[in-house]
User: Fold these one by one.
Assistant:
Number 1:
Amino acid sequence: MKELSLNILDITENSVKAGASLTEILLCEENDKLTITIKDNGCGMDEETVQAAQQPFYTTRTTRSVGMGIPLFKMQAEQTGGSLSLASKSEKEFPDEHGTVISASFYKNHIDYTPLGDVVASITTLVQGHPDTDFVFSHKTEKGEVLLDTRQLREVLGDDVSLGSFEVIKWIEEYLKEQYSENH
Amino acid sequence: MKSLAELQAIKDKMKNKVVIREGGEEVRVVVGMATCGIAAGARPVLSALVEEVEALGLSGKVSVSQTGCIGICQYEPVVEVLEAGKDKVTYVKMTAEKAKRVADEHLKGGKVVAEYTLANVKA
């Protein structure tokens, strides 16, 4: 992957497929360290699956037997001296509080650091593709926080207007870009 | 400054549009957005399609959606065009520029851009 924002898009797709009604994408930058956390309330995984998901060529897909999403993300973290952790509570074992948290840290000054890239495009792509699920996006740096919570937008838009409609996607894009120009 | 009040205005405007849209979307455009597609550059292809469909005034007729792995990863980014009563058209190794041409010539003009289809592109 050429940009970490593309990994974010890819990893978050897993959350949506796990039936999450809410997925949080949290970016935190402190000095030269970037932590990306993706947290969902989807169906979760048992311990065996958590281990398997970090291995290349594991997938739940039936079209092909290759799954590279998490191993790629892990490799990109580790090659900067960072790491990746994956924790999950399966719906079966924890019916009241289930979901998955994946967290990866990156050292930005390392020569093998993959740039974050166009994170706004990834967020708008996620909302366009999954207008019926909610996302929280937060990007914290020393200068401030960029924040989007689609639950707030849904409250304004009601049931009549899809979050995936062109006008709303454009609004989200501008909303995030404006915050980036103020806070970064 | 973007505000939630602006979103309210969008909602009011869109309400009228919803009524017009009830004729239904006749053409479905699907972009493969699994790991393989994303890594190969599907994100800008999707954005270009969404932009062009709107710019060409096709939003009532054409829907653009995302799917997982289509199964031909070496040809990603892949875009499928599905229309009732017609054969599925599979565009491969797409770019934002190619997507714009497909929007204009195929989605608007009704003519398949043959040179970008699976049958005519080498892996």
Number 2:
Amino acid sequence: MDKVRRSLLIGGASSLALPILAAPFSSLNAAPLKYNLKAQRIANNSYVVIGKTEDYSPENGGDIVNVAFIDTSDGVVLIDTGSSRRYGEALKELIYKTTGKDVIRVYNTHFHPDHCLGNQLFDKKKIAALPQTIKGLKESGEDFSSNLYRILGDWMRGTEVIIPERAINYSSEKFGKHRFEMLPFKGHTDADLAILDHETGVLYAGDICFLDRAATTPHADLEKWHKSLKEIKKIPHKIIIPGHGPADTTSRSIDQTDTYLTWLEENLTKSVKSGKDMIEAAQMPIPEKFQSIDVIKLEIERSVAHLYPKFEEKSLPFLGQGEN
Amino acid sequence: MSKKEAKSNFSKFKQFSCATLLTVALSIPVASISVSAAETSIAIPKDSLNSVMWDFMAKEHLLTDKNSKKIVMNSQILVHTPKVAEDQLNLPVHVDARSVKNAQKIVVIADLNPIPKVLTYEPKQAEARLSFRIKVGQATPIRAAVLDKDGVWHVGGTYVDASGGGCSQPAVAYGNDDWVKRLAEIRGQIWRKPGQEATRLRFSIRHPMDTGLADGIPAFFIEKLEFKGAKGNLLGNLYISEPLSENPTVTLFPILKEATTAVNIKGRDNEGNLIDVAVPAPFQSSALEN
């Protein structure tokens, strides 16, 4: 049967290929795959590159994440590297244009591909991450990368997964006048690094905080995430740079992420208790206060896929066990 | 032709002479060829999803049913899934075929899965709809074909994008030491709404549902589940294939009389492990809880 399947597929593929080849090369093919990265100054010597608050698409090339760099007298400290080799190149160019210096330290805040597939452009000995992040990237990096090749296509050309070689088992690091405090959290993933720059009071929160862009949950533990948000709120800071969304001067990103996750959890519980299946649960009505959050509908659907089975197991009554 | 049918054909001809017998014996294969020729004489309509596998799927999974008389594409057969499979091991699917009168069976197929057939559901005293989750090996059409009393297959479906590999990964359960101990644990609940005949039954059975396509792990999956009311009345049959998700979680809509206190689920997997459980049905008046 497999043989038949394969031959049918080949037949299908060649008949499909013809009209594509016959079509004139459209503007789609001609679009230059170039990221238009801009550095926004947020504090002394400190810059962010704000990503689009969208999902990955062939249009945005995966420019959907916030990346930050700090110009110290020892060299540039970079927080996260973006989704692809091409992004890393554009970022490196932007850093050099802005500071005229080389990168001496890179942090990967967690193991998700939008935060570390630009690693290739930097010296892996200088890339630091929490031990669980390194482990996660070793295990899942290739899958993440091939999924992004599938979604982003040519934007990903030449991208390889580079594992950070420096495990963060220290509480702070100093470059020039800037002392960077390492703040390991959990909840968005198994290891979420936030970094506080004591010189400027900028708190780089990674994906513990989202702002006006719905939080993502593929590896989330909601209970731990809430706990982390509670702790992060106590840390004195001037500005928060969320993993996704604009720079935040009012701690709104902490509150919004917390309220959203609470609401999500309540609705998943309610759905499971009223007997809804996953498809029905994903149709939950979005309250007014969340209407302005980008990609919320898509992220709710994704979150249902990530979290619903756990809620079902908690809620559906145990009835017995089969004989074996 | 099944073994049983062949045997009964044979006994009909017992009275004939040896020579006739020989002819009959020779004619059996010929007859079976002519049956399949008859099958292909049923026109297969153009696929609304443009799947390269559609003709083959129709021949393999629909026209093999001896009651088949016709196939029609029917947009009233609703197959709900997300556009993209977020988790290729757990793609939620909801099939609603209530628009078909006298639905005899619902066959669910994922054309481009290495094992395309997902399940066959025969609603007896139940609505012609159900939801469940499946594994997907790659982007694929997911379709539901509903056979009515007159032998007409009503086919609807949708296309799901997915990253690869859902069918060839080992079950998540094997990451836990206690999977054997917890094998075939059953959870479930029934919801009733006042004034509505159809109830909602959701259940989940802990099972790895191995496809046999992961290295060194043979196929191991629940094959059949039967649903009965309090008086032994058959509510429905569910024939399951490998692509149903690990720890299958299924929603059905059995029609229960007011006095029904439980639905019995009986079944087995392909290694003979038995499933036998009663899901208590609440009184109709308690339905307002939610």
